[in-house]
Amino acid sequence: MTQSERMQVLTAITQETAKLALSRQRLAQNLSVDMKGRLDFVTNADREVEALVASRVEGAFPQDGLFGEEGLRKSGSSGFVWVVDPIDGTHNFVLGGRDWAVSIAMIGPDHRAAAIAIPSADLILSTETGCPLLVNGKPFNRLRHTTEPSMCHTGVSTWMPVDLDHAVTDIVRRDLKLADKRSGSAVISLAAVIMGESDLYLGFGEHIWDVAACAVLAEAAGLAHTLTWSEEPSEGHMTFLCGPPDLLTQVVERAWTLDKTTPPRRPQDI
Q1: Which of 14, 129, 171, 240 is the most exposed place for a label (fewest CB within 10 A)?
Q2: What is the rounded CA–CA span in Å between residue 100 and residue 98?
């Protein structure tokens, strides 16, 4: 199936913004860094990337809505909204690290598309409704492990209680008997699950911009997740789980008991 015009525009925007972000990281001395919260950074590069996405979307689809991490808000009339995380893993980005990504999802009533760029690995993962998962423009089949599951990526926001960290580790290490790995970026961790390099993702205190694109990509890879598409993008945080349906069902009920601020959601049928 050929890509839709929207998917072509989305891919082009992702490529352009990833190049911009990488160029800004390489000029680290020119980065302006502000604190939004405990270990929660925003840079002029984040804002510049988000502004570029907005400019390109408004030029191509002026009736679409926009919703970004760094304050981008625009109501639309087309039924489509673009959910943007300009640089996920800003802490890693600021320190000159490799584990950061650009994440863009386009969500409509009957059509979804997404792309993430991981510049350090020269990777772009993309897909849209009815199409396979693409890695750098080529169909990608997720690795199917012949051994038992072994790895779980986790993410716990730094403002959440330390006891939650201990409880998450308890689920992963004792209940599931998996290794627990953290990258400092939800998108990087979810990309590992989507590509079959990890088995499961458990995220606490996530926002819609952290996970929307990866949720679309996960569906194309045959995975389940706990995001509800019928809901409008909002500022609130959530617990987000993603992985093979059989593995996800082993942990979903326990996970909901840990974060009392998030209403229970069940793995989405795919």
Answers
A1: 129
A2: 6
Q: How far is CA 145 from CA 149, 214, 241, in A?
A: 8, 21, 20
How many angstroms separate the Cα of 91 from the Cα of each of 122, 201, 234, 245? 20, 20, 23, 31
Report pLDDT digits (tens) over 5-24: 999 999 999 999 999 999 99
CATH superfamily of 5-139: Fructose-1,6-Bisphosphatase, subunit A, domain 1 (3.30.540.10)
pLDDT 10s digits, 166-190 = 888 888 998 888 999 999 999 999 9
Collapse the DSSP code of 46 into the 3-class scheme (helix H, G, I; strand E, B; otherwise coil) and give the result. helix
Domain 151-258: give its CATH code: 3.40.190.80
Residue spans per domain, the chain: 5-139, 151-258
